[in-house]
User: Fold this.
Amino acid sequence: MASSSEHAHHEESFMLEMIPLQDAEFEAIRKFVHQRLGIYLTDKKRTLVSSRLQRLLSELGLHSYTEFFERLKADTSGNLLDRMISRITTNYTYFYREERHFQFLEETVLPELKAKLASSRDLRLWCAGCATGEEAYMLQMILMKFFAGEYAHWQAGVLATDISPRALQTAIRGVYPLESIQRLPKVFHRYFRKVNRDQVEVVSDVRREVMFRRLNLIAPSWPFRGKFHVIFCRNVMIYFDNETRQKLLRHFHQYLAHDGYLFIGHSESIRQGGDLFKSVIPAVYQKKDVGR
Ligand SMILES: C[S@@+](CC[C@H](N)C(=O)[O-])C[C@H]1O[C@@H](n2cnc3c(N)ncnc32)[C@H](O)[C@@H]1O
Assistant:
């Protein structure tokens, strides 16, 4: 085991070896990330990018971003790209984020869908850009809380997708710091169990109902058979450029069931998607039927 002085020494040498990110290199990375992920790295993100990739370069024993970029292009396994994606994406999220949405789901959307889907009992929710899983588990807990004893008689569940392999790993594991559920209303605490002094785990009854899958939202087609009644895609499109956002909105529209709901982040808007969606409450939209 490394002693703390060794650790400090390592940190120090790491700090000393800051690899400069040249203008052309940043441009190349920006273009690549935009093409592959739809994420547009603004000039303001430049320091963030270099600080996030710095460690990866050191791990690979590389001394310049040009070398890194060459490796990235030559890597056919997709391994290096995955490692880069895990570093470059912002996976910030927390339980009960923008809570008004969860209340609206439980108080308005689910009662409506329960009545509407009474004969098929098939209810599909998609959490697109689920990061480390908190939002997807929230949706599942709300489904179970709402349906209670009837849940078993429904084909209901949550599909949760993200592009980041590292975030998905955390999501699937379902283990979080104890303080992450402190802001969560007590009624939801029964869906967690303590694993040790500082960590909790989402109980397996909840975990097994959420299907986590890797999916690039900007892929030209999605591998889904059915349509979704509810899509949550919050705080994901903020990283995309306008054109990518518009394409994605059209795609969501196509994959939403009749009158289906789209939830986006409170700081986002879909002004240009006005012909596809009608606004319901802040950052919640409902599919409009458009003639084909
Ligand atoms: C800030 S998190 C949002 C998490 C959660 N939805 C919330 O609102 O708290 C944004 C997530 O979008 C994912 N993401 C970014 N680009 C993506 C893409 N092209 N396809 C799929 N997911 C992507 C990132 O990996 C990240 O986990």
Q: What stands out?
A: The beta strands are 122-128, 155-162, 175-177, 192-196, 199-202, 210-214, 228-233, 256-264, 277-281, 284-287. DSSP finds ten helices and ten strands in the chain. The pocket of S-adenosylmethionine is lined by residues 37-39, 89-93, 97, 129, 131, 135, 162-164, 167, 215-218, 234-236, 239, 265 (CB under 6 Å).
